[in-house]
Amino acid sequence: MDSPVVVAVRRMRAQALNYGSATLADDWTRLITDREPASAFVFQSQEESMLQRMRWIIPLAVLACQIEPVRADVLTDWNEKTVAFVTPRMVPAAGQRVVAMVQVAMFDAINSIEPRYRPYLVQLPATATTSRQAAAAAAAASVLAGLHPQAEAEFTAAGAAYLAALPDGDGKAEGIKLGEAIAAKILATRAKDGADAPDSYRPRTVPGVYVPTPITVSSTWPNLTPFAMTSQSQFRPQAPVALTSEEWAKDYNEIKELGGKNSAKRSARQTEDARFWLITGPQSTEPVVRQIVLAKKLDLIDCARLMALTAIAAADAGIAVMDAKYHYNFWRPITAIRNGDIDDNAATERDATWQPIDNTPMHPEYPCAHCIISKAVATAVEVAFGTAEIPEIAMSSPTAPGITHQWTNVRAYADEVAYSRIWAGFHYRFSVGVGQDMGHRIGEYVANNIMQPASRAAAR
């Protein structure tokens, strides 16, 4: 049976873990196991060792009671709030911009207190006692309020409610000031990034001929200032395959057969995937990232960095893909298949009534946006951890009620998303491949070029 001393130390270790301090928890573990006795002491027995160390436990216990809870909850909570707000109000690319701004603001706020990485934008003076949670929450709430004046009162109240749950004190007050200051700089930097530019997309037609009139999606995004890329066209791919090519005919006929609304050739799992991934935008990527950082039990600063990296990768992937889409203006399967007799390819036959599994997104086809964004996020995660393997994560989708999908590998997640767009009738296989390649390059670029470890930055 453990002695009272050991029981007490076990309790202190549990408390340290609860407060997110793995280092202090390790100290308690060593006290329990006595595997690493301090060199300044020579003890004759395990019990004597524990008793002598009690004089160190008391001040450490006091310190443990003062430790601020610095778990990833503040980051995942505000990420979830952000996604919930943008999903019903914005198209995917616009929502990704907002998520990226919130995440980089929280990262720069926390990194100002614990400067282990180069800042995304700015590192402001802060003491080690400044509350990381208060800084992150204030930064997130301030960015959201600044971006959405119509909802400013909502976000101000949400921020105040969140902060009210934190212990009062100088650390909290300084954290709030820091978070608000960081948010102001992020907002100022992105104020003229092109997100508010008026839509000026010009439909291609000839005088007097009707074309469908719905406004296209994200036609201004090719001019949006990137978060990390050097230009919107940095990763622009080559032109889509020639309509007279064998590859065009092969991919045309594949999607015509498998992507049709009532396809008899598509498997039950392919149909499930197609409907599952009708979900797009931040709600299709951020739940994955949140689960990964929580499962990995990252330090707060590392969690903030990974969530910022993946958010930026998704946002810049959205910019890059819209640049390519509106540059090439390639036709969607529903247009191509209903006009299969005019592509100068004898191997493609027209189907006058063909439809995909659901409404086609209102922007050009090439390349696949869902493919590039999911791959960019997955690659950023893989670069950060040095492996594609992850603890098991699960996700459900509002577009496939009652279905849950699980993954233990981020590449498997990205592949599932990508190929679902063929089964849904939205993207040709060559477009899926190009999108994944772009996403990989963007995710790798982001993960290797911004918010790098401070020691690495100093060595350059």
Polypeptide structure, described:
It contains 17 helices and two strands. It is mainly alpha-helical and 460 residues long. Strands 1-2 form a two-stranded antiparallel ribbon. Strand 1 and strand 2 form a beta hairpin. It is elongated and about 75 Å long. About 14% of the residues have low confidence.
Secondary structure elements and pairings:
Elements: H1 4-18, H2 22-33, H3 46-66, H4 73-86, H5 92-113, H6 132-147, H7 152-164, H8 170-190, H9 246-258, H10 268-276, H11 286-296, H12 300-328, H13 333-338, H14 369-385, E1 389-396, E2 404-409, H15 410-423, H16 429-449, H17 454-459
Descriptors for this entry?
single chain; 460 residues; Vanadium-containing Chloroperoxidase, domain 2; 3 domains; two-stranded antiparallel sheet; 17 helices; 2 strands; 57% helix; 3% strand
